[in-house]
Amino acid sequence: MRRTILALAAALLALTTLVGCSSGGSDTLRVGTEGTYSPFSFQGPDGQLTGYDVEVARAVGAKLGKEVEFVQTPWDSIFAALESQRIDLVANQVTVNDERKARYDLSTPYTVSEGVIVTRADDTAIRTLADLRGRTTAQSATSNWAEVARGAGANVEAVEGFVQAVQLVKDGRVDATVNDNLAVGEYEKSTGDKGIKVAGTTGDTSEQAFAARKDSGLMPDVDRALAELRADGTLTQLSEKYFGSDVSGK
Q1: Alpha-helix runs per DSSP H in 46-97
Q2: What is the pLDDT of residues 132-144, one digit of tens each?
Q3: Do the Cβ atoms of 206 and 113 come closer than 8 Å?
Q4: How many whole angstroms separate alpha carbon 156 and alpha carbon 148?
Q5: Dist CA 159 CA 171 (whole Å)
Q6: Whole-angstrom Cα distance, residue 144 to residue 183?
Q7: Is the dihedral angle over the CA atoms 16, 19, 23, 24 positive or is it negative?
Q8: Cα 135 from Cα 12, distance rounded (Å)
Q9: What positions does the domain Solute-binding protein family 3/N-terminal occupy (predicted)?
Q10: Which long-range contacts (CB under 8 A, 24 or more apart) does 221-225 make?
Q11: What is the pLDDT of residue 4?
């Protein structure tokens, strides 16, 4: 029995040490992001990682006095990377919902957006969520947009990101994709692609935040940094830089 108690004590000490190292004890903040989701996280003309989420994460790191190390990770494995402690924070337009609130520590939201339905430009049959019933949409399998599409009765074909989803829509391999109006607007603006259109809206407004492991102890500091960045105008400046308007919320 004594050996068992000692073993449990050693395991608890190791776990406590591990959690402490990953929740703010280090001078490095490891941030997971896709790097393929413009304008939030993408490679700039110089090949360097940039975007709204990337710059907000860097600003938060500066407020915390930590060096930010980005770990590019596909969306569908980004929370696994968080749970396995490969990263400390997810910065990739994590939509706030009850399931994620229960499972992760979520920061104060720093983006507010609306969901839209994207179809081929010549498609006149899909205009609302109800029109997706029995149709096929292309989505990152674990995204909230996949949940929206499934909730509307659509079949979801899993893709790695938004650009791949758009290509499947244009190729006629799926009927639509549901995504963030900010991401869709940036895609249309940067590519001039006339092969797709916004056919309708999902009718809801969503908030996006950073995510950390549950009870990591990291989020109070992140929220304090976000409050300072909001008060000094940094969030508004970054928002206007990437979207032409303030979508950082209040």
Answers
A1: 52-64, 78-83
A2: 999 999 999 888 8
A3: yes
A4: 10
A5: 14
A6: 14
A7: positive
A8: 50
A9: 28-246
A10: 221/24, 221/64, 222/60, 222/64, 222/89, 222/107, 223/107, 223/108, 224/63, 225/59, 225/60, 225/63, 225/64
A11: 40
Q: What percent of the chain has pLDDT over 70?
A: 90
The candidate with the shortest Cα–Cα distance to 84, out of 99, 71, 68, is: 71
Give me the half-sphere count of Cα atoms (radius 13 Å) on the Cβ side of residue 215: 2
SS3 166: helix
Q: What is the mean pLDDT of residues 57-64?
A: 98
Q: What pTM, to 2 d.p., does this model score?
A: 0.77
**Phi, psi at residue 178, to the nearest 5°?**
-110, 130
- Provide DSSP, 104-161: EEE----EEEEEEEEEETT--S--SGGGGTT-EEEE-TTSHHHHHHHHTT-EEEE-SS
Q: Does position 190 have pLDDT exceeding 80, yes or no?
A: yes
Contacting residues for 4 by C-beta, under 8 A, at least 6 apart: none
With 0-12 / 13-18 / 19 or more C-beta atoms within 10 angstroms meaning exposed / middle / buried, residue 26 is: middle
Alpha carbon of 108 to those of 19, 65, 207, 230, 250: distances in Å? Answer: 22, 19, 9, 11, 10
Residues 106, 167: Cα–Cα separation, whole Å: 32
